[in-house]
Amino acid sequence: MNAADKPRCEACRTEVAVPQFTMAFQPIVDVDSDTVYAYEALVRPTGGGTAADVLAQINELNRYAFDQSCRVKAIELAAQLGMRSLLSINFLPNAVYQPAACLRRTFEAAERVGFPLHHLMFEVTEAEPSRDVGHLKAIFTEYKRHGMITAIDDFGAGHNGLNMLADFVPDVVKIDMALTRDIHKDRVRRAIIASVLSLCRELHISVIAEGVESMEEAVVLRDLGVRLFQGYLLAKPALERLPPIATGLSERIRSSHESSLLERHEAALGRRA
After folding, report:
1. Is-contact 224 31, C-beta < 8 A?
2. From CA 12, how far away is CA 98, in angstroms rounded?
3. Contact by Cβ (8 Å): 206, 171
4. Per the count of CB atoms within 10 A, which of 60, 87, 106, 213 is most buried?
């Protein structure tokens, strides 16, 4: 350890107060098989409220302790709830100083409750600032070395998306809801997502569509090639439990798609008459 790293590592070990919080879980669903691909752990205040209420209390002094506590809480709850799918956890890259050392509590928690490391997926948002590319790349490399899945969250929400894709080549890309919202009404968004899907197929990256709330959105996204969905159409987040998912979605999407094709065909016939 060099002199520059020592103060930061000592700060990491310092016990500091973090806000009281728990986790809600929202499923990410494979609509072709009507099965849960993963559950994302979403921070919530224990007394009720939103994630923003918790995050507003995070600062430079408690950032590391909070990030570590979130990982442990998510893993403990996932094990208690009997989760068998992937568990997706958001992480703060600026709260990770030395990747190997900062993963110790994660490993300890997973081993203690019997949760497999290869069932962990770590998300970093495109909009989350990082110290530098090298630092975040080291974090991704360490996660992958231990068989954990890496993901870029909110893809398309910031201005670094393609750079992050090139620098880190994650296992998963989560397309931001700003691009999926009302996609059935917007040919520009359809073209953008089609291009992202083509790129990800070339790089063997799985794609999740976030914020899917309507059947119309789901039909267009599935038609483009997306099969992993997250959003209120599938299930809302549930506090400290695993919410049931909407079943038969694949058949409903197929049925809606066929109805849409029939309507367009009849409209085309009407215009030609």
Report:
1. no
2. 10
3. yes
4. 87
Task: Show the domains of the chain with their CATH numbers.
Answer: 6-247 (3.20.20.450)
Q: What is the pLDDT of residue 138?
A: 87
Predicted TM-score (pTM) of the model is 0.86
- The DSSP line for 175-234 is E-HHHHTTGGG-HHHHHHHHHHHHHHHHHT-EEEE----SHHHHHHHHHHT--EE-STTT
Q: Can you tell me the distance from the alpha carbon of 16 to that of 27, in angstroms, rounded to the nearest whole number?
A: 32
Q: Please, are residues 41 and 77 in contact by the beta-carbon 8 Å criterion?
A: yes
Residue 108 has which token pair? 């300890």
CA triplet 180, 33, 42: central angle to 5 degrees? Answer: 50
